[in-house]
Specification:
Radius of gyration: 19 Å
CATH class of one domain: Alpha Beta
Distance between the termini: 43 Å
Oligomer: single chain
Number of strands: 13
Order of helices and strands: EHEEHEHEHEEHEEHEEHEHHEH
Number of helices: 10
CATH architecture of one domain: 3-Layer(aba) Sandwich
Strand order of the largest sheet: 3-2-1-4-5-6-10
Shape: globular
Structural class: alpha/beta
Length: about 325
């Protein structure tokens, strides 16, 4: 690789996208971000970032956004919605529009940030939409697969994670619920962002899960115990029966629709939580020559708690 890379990033105002933007700048890239939001995310608001307003659902915006870029990192995505069709509109149709724009931009590569949920699309509208987005990108690049990388992060945690904060708060009391009993691989968001930056800056193609040596794969109960230790709590962990988890998910989804406010926890998310295995197999991961994680679980959880407390979130 020679010269300075221009990388365009969607979803830069989100939890993962903000860290990707910062990691790309740290890696020496020039960065352009597509975002609805002003002001910029605090993580990169003081960094040299070009701001490009617009939406991935608009093909003309996608074309102009990709123009001149060496790579586009597509991290934008819907994780909660009032309507199941909204997941498809953003995560599948939006990805298709952007993929076509990147394909028609000379010498530009697409790095699609999918999700490990895509391997079980039957569980939720979100999971199905992430798989559909992968398939749309693969169709767009059918004639030039070397220009496409699809990355599936596992469960993420770290600074600025509002959705994961509920777990850290839950273990502070005397009793904490355990939802599900499956296995889960956990990765710190800063490691994840560095991995994505490496893929964007190199000629890596194919579909990979993001994980690596030293990353923890735990049962849900083991994860709750590890989080409790990091917080300094010692709650009584009570398993919640699967029917109760599913009922709570349906109720939460109904309550959100009644209020007109999308909830992350719904029937689909309940089924995801009850899935027996969200671990990452060795033959799925990004090659160690491209990236190796640097933050172990104890360090990551401890640092996340410290950040939450410093920010006044915990």
């Amino acid at each position: 690789m020679t010269g300075r890379r221009w990388v365009a990033v969607t979803g830069a105002s989100g939890f993962l996208g903000a860290h990707i933007t910062a990691a790309l700048i740290a890696a020496g890239a020039s960065v352009r971000v597509l975002s609805h939001h002003r002001p910029p995310h605090p993580l990169w608001q003081h960094l040299p970032v070009d701001f490009f307003p617009g939406s991935v659902t608009d093909p003309e915006t996608c074309r102009r956004f990709a123009a001149g870029a060496d790579a586009v990192v597509h991290a934008a995505g819907l994780i909660k919605a009032l309507r199941d069709t909204a997941f498809s509109e953003v995560n599948a149709q939006g990805t298709a529009a952007l993929a076509k724009a990147v394909r028609n931009t000379a010498d530009c590569r697409l790095v699609l940030i999918s999700s490990l949920a895509a391997k079980a699309p039957q569980l939720s509208a979100y999971a199905a939409s992430k798989l559909a987005g992968e398939q749309a990108a693969q169709a767009a690049f059918a004639g030039s697969p070397g220009r496409l990388a699809i990355l599936r992060p596992p469960a993420l945690y770290g600074p600025w994670d509002r959705e994961g904060l509920v777990m850290f708060r839950a273990v502070r009391g005397r009793v904490a619920p355990v939802l599900g009993s499956g296995r889960i691989t956990l990765m710190h968001v800063e490691d994840t962002a560095r991995a994505i930056a490496q893929v964007a800056m190199q000629s890596v193609a194919g579909r990979f899960a993001l994980a690596g040596p030293g990353l923890a794969t735990l049962t849900t109960r083991e994860l709750m115990k590890a989080v409790a230790k990091a917080v300094g709590g010692n709650p009584w962990l009570i398993p919640v029966p699967a029917p109760a988890v599913l009922a709570a998910g349906r109720l939460s989804g109904w309550w959100g629709r009644w209020r007109g406010r999308a909830e992350i926890f719904n029937a689909g998310k309940a089924r995801e939580l009850l899935h027996p295995d969200w671990s990452v197999a060795a033959d799925e991961v990004l090659p160690s020559t491209v990236f190796q994680p640097a933050i172990n679980l104890q360090q990551g959880l401890r640092g996340t708690v410290e950040w939450y407390r410093a920010a006044g979130w915990l």
